[in-house]
Amino acid sequence: MSDPxxxxxxxxxxxxxxxxxxxxxxxxxxxxxxxxxxxxNSAPTTLIFILLVLxxxxxxxxxxxxxxxxxxxxxxxxxxxxxxVKSVDVQGELLSGEWREVPEDxxxxxxxxxxxxxxxxxxxxxxxxxxxxxxxLEAQAEAGSLELxxxxxxxxxxxxxxxxxxxPLLILGFFFLMMRRNSDPFSGGGMMGGFVRSPAxxxxxxxxxxxxxxxxxxxxxxxxxxxxxxxxxNPKRFTKLGARIPKGVLLVGPPGTGKTLLARATxxxxxxxxxxxxxxxxxxxxxxxxxxxxxxxxxxxxxASPCIIFIDEIDAVGRVRGAGVGGGHDEREQTLNQIxxxxxxxxxxxxxxxxxxxxxxxxxxxxLLRPGRFDRHVTVDRPAREGRLGILKVHxxxxxxxxxxxxxxxxKATMGYSGAELxxxxxxxALKAAREEKRKVEMEDFYYAxxxxxxxxxxxxxxxxxxxxxxxxxxxxxxxxxWYQEGMDPVHKVSIVPRGNTxxxxxxxxxxxxxxxxxxxxxxxxxxxxxxxxxxxxxFNEYSAGxxxxxxxxxxxxxxxxxxxxxxxxVGPVSFKQSEEHPFLGKEMHSGRExxxxxxxxxDVEVQExxxxxxxxxxxxxxxxxxxxxxxxxxxxxxxxxxxxxxxEILGPRPGQAEDSEKSATEDA
Length: 669
Known about the structure:
The protein is α/β, with parallel strands linked by helices. It has 4 domains: 66-155, Signal recognition particle alu RNA binding heterodimer, srp9/1, CATH 3.30.720.210; 195-379, 3-Layer(aba) Sandwich (Rossmann fold), CATH 3.40.50; 385-455, Helicase, Ruva Protein, domain 3 (Orthogonal Bundle), CATH 1.10.8; 465-666, CATH 1.20.58.760. The chain is 46% helix and 10% strand. It has helices spanning 43-64, 73-81, 131-143, 157-180, 193-196, 219-233, 236-239, 259-270, 289-303, 331-344, 366-369, 385-395, 407-413, 419-435, 443-455, 465-484, 519-529, 531-540, 548-563, 597-624, 626-639, 644-651, 655-668, and strands at 12-14, 69-70, 85-91, 94-99, 118-122, 147-151, 201-203, 248-252, 274-278, 307-312, 352-358, 376-379, 491-495, 505-508, 641-643. The chain has a 7-stranded mixed beta sheet with strand order 1-7-9-10-11-8-12, with helices on both faces. Helix 10 (331-344) links the parallel strand 10 (307-312) and strand 11. Helix 12 (385-395) crosses helix 14 and helix 18 (531-540) packs across helix 20 (597-624). The radius of gyration is 41 Å and the shape is elongated. It starts with 11 loop residues before the first strand and ends with a helix. 32% of the residues are buried.
């Protein structure tokens, strides 16, 4: 099963420094001497003590601001008007004071027998905003019958003292706790212990591990990795003879071909732990963190030996050094240097295999690929027909299939699909069947999913009649030229339904997995590519912008024929380097031409001649098959989608099929 989804099993654990270290034999923590009790951490006790002190200060100061018995504000106002208040202290919204005589008349029922000389009450508003109360207090104070002490503040004195004391105590407590920990930040403790620790996920041995039986296809890749499995199962078998197994294996292949799954299956086949990390997870904004994470990862892996370290997308950290804007001191290059150093530091007795995956091996640093590091390269390519059939069977195990579903036909029709695309094919078909409330997934659901993957989702916009007619004859031109040119791949489907960025499409069904392409076959492809443009010229006497993609594809093929494949008599069997894509900043952005201006002019002229020849041939052939062209276009206008069987009814047998049918009829006679 070439499945790149890589769902994490439930047994994954983060691999940190010391994560694989077993407990000591005497039952204590690692690092303690035999018979010695592990030292308890007093940090929680200290933190609890600080919190208790702060709580005690809060209660002391907050309660000290209130004096005597709390009385209602209305009762206080009556006593103030009766000149029975001796002194008043106003602090924010809290008023405290002392009676001249303890009141006995008009006392609230709840305060009878509880009144004392001192009292306090909560004001309706702050002192500065209550003009009525302020005027009365100031009048009695001027008359000498009241001692007034008023402060404008929003909190009590106790709260102020608590704020002043709590902040320094909290800061001191924080630094005290940090200093109690390990002073070395790179050993897993300290303030950055969790930051510099390797984020690799560790997959332990489980009862149902992923093995090669779960990987459909990829037969050659599994054979290349079988030696790694044997080494991990029995390292002494190799080391006793002085053999050194490759420490690094590089899986190279397009996205979605199952490189991650293959690495996990290798670990499951050998029955060893599996550490998985992405190359981008090493990189951080602080220089040196990535190198520290590499050291932590390899240290943990050595403790869990034998095991496998899997680094996905290693090109994120392993690109050519000196190609970035940071020189030799940026974070990525420091991390790469540490990886190289760790791989060189393996001992003979350490059975740790590093497997890396990438789809851009051309940008990797040469130091990574030298012998002793990633010196074994395994190509994980798109699966062949048998592999695709196996992948479809694996993904459709839990999908109820109708009787008309033919997985072998689907495997034949999905040439060039990766494992991820095949998984998406099955899933999209199941989703369509579920939306239509079917009990089983039918073949038409798979056809729908195939169109969705190849051509995109159908657009809802309405197409006017003129544009629809133009698209019909354009696609009919492609289909007719592909149908009547002997040796071309058979036409699988023609559609004028607007999908994605296209108004229509003509799909061919390749008959060979790896076809041998000669000049005549390439010329037939160019003629077919020009068929849509030629049909527009014949029927409508004009060209449209819809042929821009066809022209770009044909120009690319023609230029390769002339400049790279030696298929031009004037240019000869010489390869001329045109340009090269450089995916990282700092490297040479444009390579100088390796040929003269005169040679460039000859190449351009030859490309033009080839395309003009293909275009004229397409026009001549379509004029000869004008009746079939119009019939196919009218059928497209009526049905919009035409399968190969319907196309055969309209266009008749293909040239090669006609000869085969005549030969079989003669033999039968």
